[in-house]
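Propose amino acids for all 380 sites.
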């Protein structure tokens, strides 16, 4: 790993702040986006007393060395007496790997500057306490907001036990995602669709309803980009889908078919017998699959994120149930009109404008002539 020295990033007489070192660590962590689940994204920079960066590292994948270990390995014999800038509280427990706080102490790190606290109950301040007990100076909260947003998926899963849910859809300028017949190919352009596949490679799961599978026969893979295919989740309360759909037969990724307890058991068993297909039968709530129970079970299986790609009824169920945390809306400069054509989010919706949900921290990005809007669906 190439070393970056302070003279490469500063002018004569300037010093580098804790925030600037931490931003470097955050940038390192981002390199592993989509690869670390169920672990968080973490980056680390080792700085010697003269202000030189002697080591850099980030967590690449669950089961592999953590960021602090990678950075210290990069620094070699230069670690003693240095400061470690790390984007998340160093772990203090034995999991797939050993505790990072003990490794930092043994290596002679004199100071740890951290961005975010780790909400994992196995850590939750214990890493900081152990470091301080060993005489290591600890500074907390440097660029904490950025670090928490970078790990919004992990933070949500740790705090709630449920995966982080994002609604993703492409819509016309008049808010439609398909015609009344179900035709939706294509509203968005190729650039938008490629980015949507990148999102699929980042999220653990992709979820759609029965009608999407019936109308589009999608593969639900990330074939347009490099990356891992997500677990494909299909909601079909009564187990009515034909068994020849691509998600059940192409073998490109695992598929989870979710049906109700009332579904035909013989049909469910036939689906279960298919290669790479699993069937869950869960209770209903108000006449529909209980999505809260589904999310609980996914969280227990260490699935930390779900990208919901519709259709309208499924989006509405997540929206009405306050079960989604983020939205990705791709808006194309076209119109189809028609009161029977499908809107992006169905369900009951808000009764009046006082109940509208305003995106928090909205961001905008152009993909050719399309515009993507994303933000958080935080509600009181």
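Proposal:
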């Amino acid at each position: 790993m190439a070393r970056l020295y302070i003279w490469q990033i500063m002018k004569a007489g300037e010093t580098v702040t804790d925030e600037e070192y931490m931003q470097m660590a955050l940038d390192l962590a981002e390199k592993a986006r989509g690869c670390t689940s169920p672990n968080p994204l973490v980056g680390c920079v080792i700085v010697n007393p003269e202000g030189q960066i002697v080591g850099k590292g980030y967590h690449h994948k669950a089961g592999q060395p953590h960021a602090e270990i990678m950075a210290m390995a990069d620094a070699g014999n230069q670690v003693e007496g240095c400061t470690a800038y790390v984007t998340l509280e160093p772990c203090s427990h034995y999991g797939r790997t050993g505790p990072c706080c003990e490794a930092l102490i043994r290596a002679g790190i004199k100071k740890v500057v951290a961005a975010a606290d780790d909400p994992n109950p196995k850590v939750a301040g214990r890493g900081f306490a152990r470091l301080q007990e060993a005489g290591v100076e600890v500074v907390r909260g440097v660029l904490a907001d950025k670090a928490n947003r970078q790990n919004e998926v992990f933070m949500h899963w740790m705090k709630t036990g449920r995966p982080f849910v994002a609604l993703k859809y492409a819509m016309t300028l008049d808010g439609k995602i398909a015609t009344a017949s179900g035709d939706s190919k294509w509203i968005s352009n190729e650039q938008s669709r490629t980015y949507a596949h990148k999102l699929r490679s980042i999220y653990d799961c992709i979820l759609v309803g029965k009608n999407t599978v019936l109308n589009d026969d999608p593969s639900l893979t990330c074939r347009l980009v490099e990356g891992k295919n997500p677990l494909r989740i299909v909601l079909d309360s009564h187990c009515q889908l034909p068994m020849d759909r691509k998600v059940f037969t192409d073998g490109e990724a695992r598929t989870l078919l979710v049906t109700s307890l009332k579904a035909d058991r013989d049909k469910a068993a036939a689906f279960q017998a298919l290669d790479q297909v699993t069937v869950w039968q869960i209770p209903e709530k108000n006449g529909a699959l209980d999505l809260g129970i589904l999310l609980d079970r996914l969280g227990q299986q260490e699935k930390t994120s779900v990208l919901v790609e519709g259709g309208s009824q499924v989006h509405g169920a997540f929206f009405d149930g306050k079960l989604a945390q983020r939205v990705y809306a791709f808006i194309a400069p076209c119109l189809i009109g028609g009161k029977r054509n499908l809107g992006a989010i169905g369900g009951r919706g808000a009764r009046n404008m006082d109940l509208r949900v305003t995106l928090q921290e909205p961001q905008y990005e152009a993909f050719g002539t399309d515009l993507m809007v994303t933000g958080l669906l935080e509600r009181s």
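Residues 161-378 form a domain with the Dihydrofolate Reductase, subunit A fold (CATH 3.40.430.10). Residues 1-9 have pLDDT under 50 and may be disordered.
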